[in-house]
Structure formats: C-alpha cells, structure tokens
Specification:
It contains 21 helices and 31 strands. The chain has about 675 residues and is α/β, with parallel strands linked by helices. Helix 5 packs antiparallel against helix 6, helix 6 crosses helix 7 and helix 8 packs across helix 9. Bound molecules: adenosine-5'-monophosphate-propyl ester.
C-alpha cells in the first residue's frame, strides 16, 4: 500500500484468488494429522444433556419451526407473526411483528418469576479481595437507575451510545441500560487508542460516552479517561461523558460542562423504570470489527433474533443448568464473545457467571485457577492463545488448585491446535471434561459450528458440525460443495437468527463483503476442510484479516497506519504464524528518501505510531525496513512471499514478480540486521 492510496486493497491474497490461501500451514496442518482421535461425551453428561442427537433431525425437518420453538426462551411483549422474512435477501427480518425488551428478558422476568436472589455475577476485581456479588434483583435495580440517568442526559430510543470501559459490573449495567432504552450501544475495547475511539464515535454518531477513570491491569491502574478526552475533543457532537470511578486516579482532567460522575448521577436515581417493548428488529448494538479494508466495519445486531440465538446456543453448547452451574467466560466485554456469552446469552438464561477484571498472572500465574477453585466454576470458556500461555507457564500451576468442579471447557477465537486442546482437556479438565471448540464471528453473533457436549465425540482441532438450525458448507472456487477429505471456503447457506443485519450505514458494503463472492450464501472469510466423516476443520482466514491472540486485525488498517507516518513511503503487513498468539503482525516498510535510514529508533517509533493510530493490540511484532516490496506486474504486493520471509522459510515461487531480484534485496537487508523484533 502506498501513502497516496490508503484505502485501496492491494492484496493478492484476497478471498477467492485461488488455492494458495487455502493451503493449511502451521497449526492447521498439525490439526489435520490428528484427525483420528475422538473423545466420547462423559456418560453422566450425555444422560442428562440439554440437547440430544434428535435435535439435529428436528431442526433439519423444519428449520423455521425449530427457531420458533427456541424463541419461546424469550418473553415477548407482543408475539411475532412470522419467523423469518427473507423476501429481500441478504436483509433478514426475524420474528417479524414481535416486540420485546432485551433488558427485561435478561433481568426483570427472572426477578418476577422468583429468581431475583440468584447471583447473576460473582465479580472479581484484579486487586485481591476486591469482589462484588450482584444478584438478578441487584442488577435489575442498577440497570433501572442507569437507564433513568441516561434519560436525564437526554438519551432516547435510537440514540447510539459509546462505551469504553474496563471489566467492571458497570459495563454490563451500562449496556443493559442502553438496551432497556432501545439506545444501541457500541462497546469499544479498552485496548483501542483515542484515534480508533473517535472514529467509531463519529461513525455511529454517539452523543453520550460512558467510561471510567481507569481499570486495573497487571497490578496497576490503567487510565481510560485520557484517551476519551482526546477522542471526544474531535467529536463536537458528544454532549456528555459519564465516568465511573474505579481506580480513584486523581490526575484526570475534568470538563465540568460535559463530564459527569456515575456516582453523582446514577446513584440518586430511582430503581423503578418501566421497560418499553421494541420491535424484534430494533438495533441492539453495533460492534466494530476489522475487515479487508482500512475502515472498520460496524456490525449491526438487532434485538429479537440475537437474543434467541445467544440464549439457545449458550444453553445448548454449554449444557447450561442455570440452577447449579457457575459459568465463566474469560473474554473481554469489548469483544463479541463478551457481548454474547458474558452478557446477553447467560443473562437471558438466568445463569450465574463469574466476571474477572484483570490479567491471568496478577498477582500470580495461578489466579484463574484460584478463581475456578474459589467459585467452584463448572463451565469455562476461553481462547486458545490463553491456553497456550498456560502451557508455557507449566501444568504445575493449575495442578496446585482444586479444579474438580469443572464439567465442560470451551474454546473460541481461532483454531485450537491439538496440543493445546489435549493440554486443556488433561491439565484443566482432568481428562473428563469435554472440550467444545466453537466457531463463530462478530458477524454471526452466535456460535455456529461446535460439538454438542452430550452428543458429539469431539476430535482435537475440529469444530465438528454446524449446530442444529444452522446450515454450513465448504465450497470450492466455483461455489460447489467439496468432497469429504477436501478443503475450500466456509459458507453459511441459510440465514440464522443472530446474524448481522447490515453494516452500520453501509448496506452496499454489507452485500459486497459477505454475499457477493458466493451469491445467496454468506461467505465467512475462513478456509475449512471437511474430513472423511464430514466434520469441519477451520484453516484460518483467506482474506486480509489476521487473528492475533484471537483479536481480529486488518492488514490494510495497519498498513494505512504505517504510511500515515511521515517517514514511511510504503508498507506491507502480513500475519506470520506464531506459536503463542496464533498469528503475529509482521510489517515491511520502505522509508521515504527524506527520512534517510530512518534513524536508530525508527522501528520503535513506528510501533508506537501504530499503537497511537489503532491501539496497542495492533503493534507489529516485527518491523523490517526494506528497500523494495515484492509486487506483481499489476502492482499487487505479494504477501505470500513476505509471509515466507516472516516465517523464516525459503521463499516460494517468484516468477510472477515484476522484478524477481527484490526478494534478494529484502533478504540481504535482513542479513544486515535492519529489522527489529518485539521483546
Ligand atoms: O477466523 C475465524 C476465527 O475468528 C474469526 C472471527 O473473529 P471475531 O469476529 O473477532 O470473533 C471472534 C470470536 C467469535 C473467524 O472468522 N475463529 C473464531 N472461532 C474460531 C475461529 N477459527 C477457528 N476455530 C474457531 N473455533
């Protein structure tokens, strides 16, 4: 990507460009070598499982009747008349004519039905002994107060509200207060920078921002208000910033006309608030995620279908027994996993959850296992990158804790390599807990492909089959289903209740991104293989999206950030296989002539620049200063060759390069050491 042309996709590896993107590498390859291993469900779990094998047949026989039945999990203020309106694809309407309130479904009805005393969240702060227990009745009261406070700030149904918060109960309270008012929220992960925050606030036209002074990370307060101040200084339409006091940092700036403390405004409000019923298709939230271009996409989820989809999957895949389970999803609420499987799914089901604020190694590397022991966690959901970190730290750490309460383990966010799966099963699950490897996306809203714990004999590394009510296929370039034993592109062939409805403010991009590659089918952007049993093995992204520690990053977005630095003329970014984080960001940059050799600190300077433009999560692990980039005759950067360099491999076929000596130049530069690695 050049500095003149910041929004054009110049990848040669964009979806559908041929077989190269589909070649499994690294973990995916080792997954495929372990296909034969299987773990039957534990007998007791299978005997009492929420879902039996018959559910697949039932859903196959009449998919819409199946989803209509699942919709009974939700309390409708007005019943729906039609399950699905697919008359204008790809714009779906689910549960047409139905009205409901999401917060009512997550809270009030549990209280009304006598479950108000049940714990909704055991919240655990990072500092030792900093805990809060919120019952469903407590949470309902807090959400009503927050909703009344937002009304006082002038919030009306349809207004979008930005939330930039640590992992504290007020984050859930704020989301549900928005949902209660029909004001779609957009939660922005705390690792994003002020720049990323302001562009999202502007894109969804938020007038109110909810934040905190900071949160605890690695034993110290980490400030959140300064990036909000900086972001909001560029968003003149933001009229109020509601600030939770979490860390008590005294160095925060205060704008008396705009900023208001949560405790000043919310605490004094009434715990009474009448929830209004909204249309099933009323927007519930917008979540920004990276795509193949520089501009993040605002994924829009609506209310009825999303709640049905998340409630059903949380109940079915985690075999939820709400009266007895203690469920813990370790994701951050700033990502879709936190939305669907910390907030909406579990609360709609009346589950008891653990929520933890901090990092797994504070104050010691056994913190998570201490929490499992102390709270007798039964169902646990985390990401492969975390599992690999624990593997590195050693099995003796979890072994010091009593993990016998655990019954089921979940994985999400990236392919789980069989080694990590086996370690998770053995060292955390005592070789008795089933592991559910759940495939889904911000766009799908709900889990789509996963074992069912009481039904499926799981294979380490495979997400197995589409769950009941979901139709997926693996197709070749021409869109034809592949044979068993072959690879291709993962598509979803029927609409599903929690599907995204569009991209915020950009219907055309929605159609183009997801529905044009294989007309009539949703293209997920993932490569996959069907094994001889017809089970699905995910092979990673086939587009310009990277997956770093389960976080989704766009190569193009990072390239744009790099070329916006005055010393950079051109940049190319690839995701290089990494043992710990799945993929790592590797950048290749050509400096401007005016920058000379960039100076000694150029690499550190560029990494800091990406952190400022996007956020610390996007900082390249390696940056290599190169004299040229490998390009085809039509000017496309050949990322495949750069990936070879970044992964220390012999470079592949260079015959399509405009100038094949470029790779020699890059390699000689590497030998001279003009490159830097993180840590
Ligand atoms: O490539 C797939 C990978 O993560 C992508 C979706 O990322 P995001 O929208 O950030 O959502 C993450 C949490 C749902 C997918 O396109 N992915 C997610 N789960 C898996 C996975 N890859 C393999 N196996 C999984 N279980």
């Amino acid at each position: 990507m050049t500095d003149k042309d910041q929004t054009t996709v110049t990848s040669e590896s964009s979806a559908g460009d041929g077989s190269d993107a589909l070649k499994p590498s690294g973990d995916a390859l080792s997954n495929l070598l372990h296909e034969e291993r299987r773990f039957e469900p534990p007998v007791e779990l299978a005997t009492n499982a929420n879902v039996t094998a018959a559910e697949y047949d039932e859903a196959d026989a009449d998919r819409l009747a199946f989803w209509a039945k699942q919709a009974e999990r939700i309390t409708w203020a007005q019943p729906f008349e039609e399950v699905l309106d697919w008359s204008e694809p790809p714009f779906a309407k689910w549960f047409v004519g139905g009205k409901l309130n999401a917060a009512y479904n997550c809270l009030d009805r549990h209280v009304a039905e006598g479950r108000g005393g049940r714990v909704a969240f055991h919240w655990i702060g990072e500092p030792d002994d900093d805990t809060r227990t919120l019952t469903y009745a407590d949470l309902k009261d807090e959400v009503c107060k927050a909703a009344n406070a937002l009304v006082e700030l002038g919030v009306r149904s349809g207004d979008c509200i930005a939330i930039y918060m640590p992992m504290i109960p007020e984050t859930v309270i704020a989301m549900l207060a928005c949902a209660r008012l029909g004001a779609p929220h957009t939660v922005i992960f705390g690792g994003f920078s002020a720049d990323a925050l302001s562009s999202r606030i502007q894109d969804c036209d938020a007038r109110v921002v909810i934040t905190a002074d900071g949160g605890y990370r690695r034993g110290a307060p980490s400030a959140l208000k300064p990036p909000v101040d900086e972001a909001v200084s560029r968003c003149p339409d933001v009229r109020s910033v509601l600030v939770v006091r979490r860390t008590g940092q005294d160095d925060i700036e205060w704008n008396g006309e705009r900023d208001v403390w949560w405790h000043d405004l919310v605490d004094k409000q009434s715990t009474e608030h009448e929830p209004e019923a909204f249309d099933a298709e009323h927007p519930l939230y917008v979540m920004y995620t990276s795509g193949s271009t520089g501009k993040p996409k605002g994924i829009l989820h609506s209310t009825g279908g999303y709640l049905v989809g998340t409630a059903y999957t949380h109940w079915a895949i985690f075999d939820l027994k709400p009266e007895t389970d203690v469920y813990w999803c370790s994701a951050d609420i700033g990502w879709v996993t936190g939305h669907s499987y910390i907030v909406y799914g579990p609360l709609a089901n009346g589950a008891t959850s653990v929520m933890y604020e901090g990092t797994p190694d504070t104050p010691h590397k056994g913190r998570w296992w201490q929490i499992v022991q102390d709270y007798k966690v039964t169902k646990f959901y985390t990401a492969p990158t975390a599992i690999r970190t624990f593997m590195k730290w050693g099995a003796e750490i979890p072994a010091k804790h009593d993990l016998s309460s655990l019954q089921l383990l979940g994985s999400v966010g990236e392919p789980i390599n069989p080694e990590a799966y086996m370690w998770y099963r053995k060292e955390i699950g005592s070789d008795r807990c089933p592991v559910v490897d759940t495939w889904w996306q911000t766009e799908t809203g709900m889990i789509m492909i996963s074992p069912l714990p009481g039904v499926t004999a799981g294979k380490p590394g495979s997400a197995m089959k589409a769950i009941p009510g979901i139709s997926a296929a693996v197709v070749n370039d021409a869109g034809e289903p592949v044979e068993r034993g072959s690879g291709g592109y993962l598509v979803l062939t029927e609409p599903w209740p929690a599907m995204l409805r569009t991209l915020w403010g950009d219907d055309e991009r929605y159609k183009e991104t997801y529905w044009s590659r294989f007309p009539g089918r949703y293209f997920a952007g993932d490569g996959a293989k069907l094994d001889e049993d017809g089970d699905v093995w995910l092979l990673g992204r086939v587009d310009d999206v990277m997956n770093v520690s389960g976080h989704r990053l766009s190569t193009t977005e990072i390239e744009s950030a790099l070329v916006s630095h005055p010393k950079v003329a051109e940049a190319a970014v690839v995701g290089a296989a990494d043992n710990m984080t799945g993929q790592a960001v590797a950048a290749f940059v050509i400096l401007r002539e005016s920058a000379g050799d960039g100076g000694e600190d150029v690499v550190a300077e560029l990494r800091a620049h990406v952190a400022k433009e996007i956020g610390a999560i996007a900082k390249p692990k390696t940056i290599m200063v190169v004299p040229e980039l490998p390009k085809t005759r039509s000017g496309k950067i050949m990322r495949r060759l750069l990936r070879d360099v970044a992964e220390h491999r012999e470079t592949g076929d260079v015959t399509t390069l405009a100038d094949s000596s470029v790779m020699d130049l890059i390699k000689s530069n590497l030998d001279e050491g003009k490159t830097a690695d993180d840590d």
